[in-house]
Amino acid sequence: QVQLVESGGGLVQAGGSLRLSCAASGRTFSSYAMGWFRQAPGKEREFVAGRSWSGNTYYGDSVKGRFSIARDNAKNTVYLQMNSLKPEDTAAYYCAAERTSVAIVTTNPHDYDYWGQGTQVTVSS
Predict the structure, then answer these.
(1) How many beta carbons lie within 10 A of that of residue 43, not counting itself?
(2) Which residues pair with 99 in a beta bridge?
(3) pLDDT (tens digit, 9 = 90+) per residue, 29-61?
(4) Is 8 exposed, middle or buried (0-12, 13-18, 19+ CB in 10 A)?
(5) Judging by beta carbons within 10 Å of its beta carbon (0-12, 13-18, 19+), is residue 53 exposed, middle or buried?
(6) Rg of the chain's alpha carbons, rounded to an integer?
(7) Degrees (nearest 5) of the Cα angle 6, 12, 17?
(8) From 111's CA, which of 39, 50, 52, 86 has a CA 20 to 30 Å away?
(9) Is 24 exposed, middle or buried (CB count within 10 Å of its CB: 0-12, 13-18, 19+)?
C-alpha cells in the first residue's frame, strides 16, 4: 500500500513558477512509477509528467519544456517543477503511483494504483 499527499499548490501570475511535492509512505516506493495528472473543471484528467523507477521520464505535450519531474527515493518524495505557467495550467494536480515491473511511463490514469487528494494550482492572467 502507498499513501500519497500533495502540497505546494497556490495562486501565481502567468509566467511564474511553482513546485509541487508528493510525499509517499508505504513499502517499495523505489519500485513504483510516479506520475502527475491534472484536472480542470469540466475536463478529463490529463497526464502531465511521469517518471519510472529506473529514471525514464515523459511529459505531456502541453507542458514539455516548462515542467520537470524529479524523484528523491531517499525522502520518498516526487516533485513537479512548473515554470512559465499559463492560465491554461489552472487545475487540480494529482500525484499517482503505479505498481510496475518494467521501466516505462504510462499516461493512462487507469493504469495507476494509488492517488493523492490533489492540490489546486491557479494561474492568473
Answers:
(1) 9
(2) 32
(3) 667 899 999 999 999 999 999 998 888 999 999
(4) middle
(5) buried
(6) 13
(7) 70
(8) 86
(9) buried
